[in-house]
Specification:
The chain has helices spanning 2-33, 39-51, 55-74, 80-98, 108-131, 138-149, 154-171, 178-205. It has 207 residues and is mainly alpha-helical. The protein has one domain (2-205). The longest helix is centred in the N-terminal third of the chain and has 32 residues, at 2-33. It is globular, with a radius of gyration of 17 Å. The chain crosses the membrane at residues 12-31, 51-71, 83-103, 109-131.
Amino acid sequence: MRRIMSERFSARFLRLFLGIFLISCGIFMFINSQLGSDPITVLVNGLASTTGLTVGQTSFVINGFIILFLLLVSGKKFGPGTFLHAIFVGVFLDLLFMFPGAISPNFILLRALMLVAAVLLIGSGIAIYISAEMGEGALEALLMFFREKTDFSFKSIKVTLDVIFGGIGVLLGATFGIGTVLGALAIGPVAQAMLCVVNDYRNHHGR
């Protein structure tokens, strides 16, 4: 029994880090497409270009600020996955920008394909990360906090935060483009669809 529990925990831990890595790869693709990123990445990119921090360091700062804010105003308890997500998305991003480095093809079709890949990677990563059940990401926790404190729908809150994050990022010099719109509209549905696939796999294989 103890061995089975250990194996299941290991599987959850692996899913957690696989999800985080895929999310990081998707953000990397978004930024390198130069066609606009999802709203939170627009904020990260804009803040990074303004402060001189790396993209990974900026991601860590933003996630850390959100977690600290929620701890102070709500006393919310987070799972270990929340903190690991905040740390390792930044770590993986900096590693990706170091090896292989920036990739910005001139051919517009390749950049468009990078956008599609970014949405699929982030959506799949979110689904796999959620399936680990070790704590939501900082942004998801922020969405749930405002949902619980207001009468607004989850969708309305998400759209509002997307506009705020994206707007601040653009003011700081980040690129707003078709990728920003695509990220805002498509990542959620992709994550939902992939979560169904992941859950079906887990139910079938008993993990």
